[in-house]
TrEMBL record:
<dbReference type="InterPro" id="IPR036291">
    <property type="entry name" value="NAD(P)-bd_dom_sf"/>
</dbReference>
<keyword id="KW-0560">Oxidoreductase</keyword>
<comment type="similarity">
    <text>Belongs to the short-chain dehydrogenases/reductases (SDR) family.</text>
</comment>
<dbReference type="Pfam" id="PF00106">
    <property type="entry name" value="adh_short"/>
</dbReference>
<protein>
    <submittedName>
        <fullName>SDR family oxidoreductase</fullName>
    </submittedName>
</protein>
<dbReference type="InterPro" id="IPR002347">
    <property type="entry name" value="SDR_fam"/>
</dbReference>
Length: 301
C-alpha cells in the first residue's frame, strides 16, 4: 500500500467498527484524518485510541450528523474553511434496521442517513474533490443490496415500512450513487474517481441489541461466522488506496459468498445495473437535499 503523507481523508462514522479500523490504517500510512462523527465525545475517545498506538497520527474530530442536512452543510462549510484539498472521502457511516423513524428533514432514517446525507456531503465537497488530482470517493454498500429495489413511491416509508427492506434499499442507493458519480467524473474528464465496497458480514456496532450487549451464544456465532472489523475494513482500504483501480469498481471479500476474506473485485447484483433507476435516483436525491453537483472542470477561485 502506498504512503499517504500529505493527503487528507474524511471518514464518516470513524469512531467505531470499520470506520475506526480504516482510520487506524490510513493514519499509519501518513494521511491526515478527519473523523466525521455524530457523537464527538465518542469520536475523541476513538482519536485517543489511535494516538495511543500511533503518536505521530494527524487526526481530528468534527461533528457530522448525516440525518440532519443543516449539520451536513455546517460540516462542509467548516471543512472548506480549514482545507483547500480533499484526497479521500469515505462515506462509511450507516444505521441498520431501526424502528420506523425520520430524519430532521422528514426522510426515512435509513435512506436519509445512509444515502441522502452522504449524497449531500459529497456534493457540497465536490469543488475540493475536483481540484485535488487523483481524489477518491469510497461509498460503503452491503451484501444486502442484492435483490433490493428503489421504491420511489414510498421513499419516506409512510405507505409501509419493513426495517430490513429499507436498509437494503439504502445500501442499493449507496451503490447506484457510487457508480453514477464515477460515470459523471469520467464524462466531464475529471481526475477524481468513485468506488464502492462492502465488508462482507462483519461484527461491528451495526449488530447492536439495544442497550444490552449481545448474548454469549450470539457472540460465539459472530466470532465463527463474521469477520472482525479489521478484516471488514480491508475492502474500504483497498478501494481507497490501490493504485491499479480506475474508478467504478465494487470491492468485497474474496471468500465464499463474499462474506469473509481478503479484498477483491466483486460484481454488483443485477439490481444495481439499471441506468434509468440510477439517473432517477440522482435527480430525486438532488431535489430532496437541495444539493446540485457542478462537474464543470473549473479551478477554485
Amino acid at each position: 500500500m502506498e504512503q499517504l503523507t500529505g493527503k487528507t481523508a474524511i471518514i464518516t462514522g470513524a469512531n467505531s467498527g470499520i470506520g475506526l479500523e480504516a482510520a487506524k490504517v490510513l493514519a499509519e500510512r501518513g494521511a491526515t484524518i478527519v473523523m466525521a462523527v455524530r457523537d464527538t465525545e465518542k469520536g475523541e475517545a476513538a482519536r485517543q485510541l489511535i494516538l495511543n498506538d500511533n503518536k505521530e497520527a494527524s487526526i481530528s474530530v468534527m461533528k457530522l450528523d448525516l440525518s440532519d442536512l443543516a449539520s451536513v452543510n455546517g460540516f462542509a462549510d467548516s471543512f472548506k474553511r480549514q482545507h483547500n484539498s480533499l484526497d479521500l472521502l469515505i462515506n462509511n457511516a450507516g444505521v441498520m434496521t431501526p424502528p420506523y423513524s425520520k430524519t430532521k428533514d422528514g426522510f426515512e432514517l435509513q435512506f436519509g442517513s445512509n444515502h441522502l446525507g452522504h449524497f449531500a456531503l459529497t456534493g457540497l465537497l465536490l469543488l475540493l474533490l475536483k481540484n485535488t488530482p487523483g481524489s477518491r470517493v469510497v461509498s460503503l454498500s452491503s451484501l444486502a443490496h442484492k435483490g433490493a429495489s428503489i421504491d420511489f413511491d414510498n421513499l419516506d416509508g409512510t405507505k409501509g415500512y419493513k426495517p430490513m427492506k429499507f436498509y437494503s434499499q439504502s445500501k442499493l442507493a449507496n451503490l447506484l450513487f457510487a457508480q453514477e458519480l464515477d460515470k459523471r467524473f469520467k464524462q466531464y474528464g475529471l481526475q477524481s474517481m468513485s468506488l464502492s465496497c462492502h465488508p462482507g458480514i462483519s461484527a461491528t456496532n451495526l449488530f447492536k441489541f439495544g442497550k444490552r450487549d449481545a448474548p454469549k451464544f450470539l457472540k460465539t456465532l459472530m466470532h465463527n461466522f463474521l469477520q472482525p472489523p479489521d478484516m471488514g475494513a480491508l475492502p474500504t482500504i483497498y478501494a481507497a488506496t490501490d493504485p491499479n483501480l480506475k474508478g467504478g469498481e465494487y470491492i468485497g471479500p474474496d471468500g465464499k459468498g463474499q462474506r469473509k476474506g481478503y479484498p477483491a473485485l466483486d460484481t454488483p447484483h443485477a439490481s444495481a445495473g439499471d441506468e434509468a433507476v440510477s439517473r432517477k435516483l440522482w435527480e430525486v436525491s438532488e431535489k430532496l437535499t437541495g444539493v446540485t453537483f457542478d462537474f464543470s472542470n473549473a479551478s477554485a477561485q
